[in-house]
Amino acid sequence: MKKIGLTLAGLAFAAAPAFAADTVKIGLAVPMTGDYAPYSEFQGARCMAEKINAEGGINGMPIELFVQDTGSDTQTAISLAQKFLDDGVVMLGTIPFSDTMIPVAQVAAGYGVSIFQPQSTQVEMHAGIVDNFFTGVSPDPFTATAAANHALKQGVKNVVLFTSDEGGSWSARTPLWFGEVIEENGGKVLAKLNFSFGTSDWSPQIAEIKALDPQPDAVYISSIMPDVGVLVRQLRSAGIDAWVVGSDGFDDPSLDAIGSDDPSLLDKVFFATLAPSQEDSAVVNFMKECKEMGHEVNGLFPATGADTIMAVKFGVETAGSTDPAAVADAIRSADSLPVLTVDSISFKDTKTYAQRTIPVIGYKDGKRVLVTNEIPANVPTDWN
Fold this sequence. Notes:
The protein is of the alpha/beta class. The protein has two domains: 24-137 and 282-345, Response regulator (Rossmann fold, 3-Layer(aba) Sandwich), CATH 3.40.50; 140-273 and 358-374, 3-Layer(aba) Sandwich (Rossmann fold). Helices cover 34% and strands 18% of the residues. A seven-stranded mixed sheet has the order 7-6-8-9-10-13-14, with helices on both faces. It has a five-stranded parallel sheet with strand order 2-1-3-4-5, with helices on both faces. A hairpin with a 2-residue loop joins β13 (358-364) and β14 (367-374). The radius of gyration is 21 Å and the shape is globular. Belongs to the leucine-binding protein family. Pfam families: Peripla_BP_6. Keywords: Amino-acid transport, Signal, Transport. Residues 1-20 form the signal peptide. InterPro entries: BCAA_transport, Leu-bd, Peripla_BP_I.
């Protein structure tokens, strides 16, 4: 994924060139550089803000979007959040991992301001530590269940789980929830294998898989590119034809690229993710439109920032106010909020995470296809 140049780092900018005093201020203290840069939502937020401003803004008020680079550092994120809060923002976004989101939310609570994180699936945010928090997606047990349900439909019985503590519950527990659903439906977890981010040689894990009897029908891993692409190639080279199943970390254009020479490499790959992202989906069309406007939105994670802007727009319009608490109450009490990534979301019953469908993306002839897009009813209950 292309990263934003350092010339933008540390700059605050508006979504349109000039603003009156009455604006809707949104602050994004996000990782434009560093390890977490691929998960930053500011590109989609900037594009959607510009689109809404071109249409007259929110209740006649333009959106003023402040973006500054945290360098993927928590203390920097907290300091920038404080600055934005003093500037009067209605909503905040930050680094999408709980060790940053929790302290930022605690600081924001004193101002009556909430965080809207459009891409965070970590369960830690829904444990009652903070309540001034929204995520535009459902937690990892939902994505794990959606993937497991599709795997079961493919006849999957025996699975191997790859786990790592390096990505928190996302990489450590999401595979376990996948395995739980498989076993509840008569399948079996054959093995749990550890891995580290940045792995380029999967031969130790592959050797363990080849020694299993029976062989797995699927392997599940919640990890990122390029690691996942390397795993797929090495599994196939070793003669292992099991399904390779994963979560939103698979949703990167570079995964598609591994099938450019041999599309069959992706025939038995699928993942549960944050939005339908096949050709001509709403997200893909949005990215094309943004490019025409001069904004590069390079993938699903950056595109999710559009949901933040759309949610704030809904909250301000519904509340008839830019008071942060009133905006948050309007978002939380709505039966349905229109967003970009799926048809709609709701926080009415869930409070901090979005009740929404979970898309599962597979491949046909090397191209993405949407295989399911449902709210799973059999989600494990041992996470909240």
